[in-house]
Amino acid sequence: MARPSQFAVLVAFVILASVTTITLGIWLLGKTANLAVANKVIRIPSASMEPTLESGSNHFYNSVAYQISSPKVNDIVVYHPPEFIANGEMAKMFFVHRCVGVAGDILEIRDGSLYRNGHLISEPYVQKNAKLDFKLGRYRGEIIPIVTEDHLVNLGNRIDPKFWLDHVPETLDLSLDDPLPVPHGTILVMGDNRAGASDSRSWGTLPVNRVVGKLTGY
User: Fold this and answer.
1) What is the pLDDT of residues 138-157, one digit of tens each?
2) For residue 50, is pLDDT > 90?
3) In a 3-state reduction of DSSP, which class is residue 134?
4) 112: alpha, beta or left? (left if phi > 0; alpha if psi -120 to 50)
5) Average confidence (pLDDT) over 49-53
6) Torsion sign over Cα 164, 167, 173, 177
7) Which of 76, 84, 158, 215 has the fewest CB neighbours in a 10 Å radius?
């Protein structure tokens, strides 16, 4: 059998190199397109994440970050508010807060300091704090936030304030119970501006399926 000429070998090499280059180009183009689709811009809607994120500033978030994984502690997540506190157009609004606890974590705030699973957490990004106590508790089969401030106990905005004002002994008993872990399929989120944020301290756990992305490049 005759051996291929050097010219034929060169032509075959050039063709192979061209096909490889085209294939790589198509792959990179697809990756770039996917990246462009995944990365979206959000305008920070309030001062609840200051000083980390200024109100009105624009930031990118990855809208596919949690398609194959779940939020992690210290991720800054973009989410829609839980359906039990929002309906209509408000349920479609975007909020941005820091994930401070995931399923199984036991979170407490004591005199303004955050504890996770019994350990004091250093939070250098928190500059405006609120001197209150917080934990998750169970009331009538529902896991709700229990907040104590200046010796007054409330159950967040999950329960009509008139109820807990009319049932002070019952809420005081709840404040003495041990804290409960974050339930499966949910996370706890808080604003870095603890004195000016409506977050899990007010309405409790956030279902993971309400999270729409992870903030990047802040």
Assistant:
1) 877 788 888 877 655 555 55
2) yes
3) strand
4) left
5) 95
6) negative
7) 84
- Three-class DSSP category at 12: helix
The number of beta carbons lying within 10 Å of the beta carbon of residue 206 is: 25
* Cβ proximity of 127 and 51 under 8 Å: yes
Per CATH, the number for 44-216 is 2.10.109.10
Ranges of each domain in the chain: 1-40, 44-216
Tell me the C-alpha distance between 20 and 27, whole Å.
11
192 phi and psi, to 5 degrees? -65, -25
Tokens of 178: 């041990």
CA 215/CA 81 separation, integer angstroms: 16
- The structure tokens listed for 15 are 């063709």
- Going by their DSSP bridges, the two strands 58-62 and 211-216 should be labelled as antiparallel
DSSP state of 65: T
pLDDT for res 130: 77
Please name the residue that has the structure tokens 């689709």: 37
What is the rounded CA–CA span in Å between residue 96 and residue 217? 14
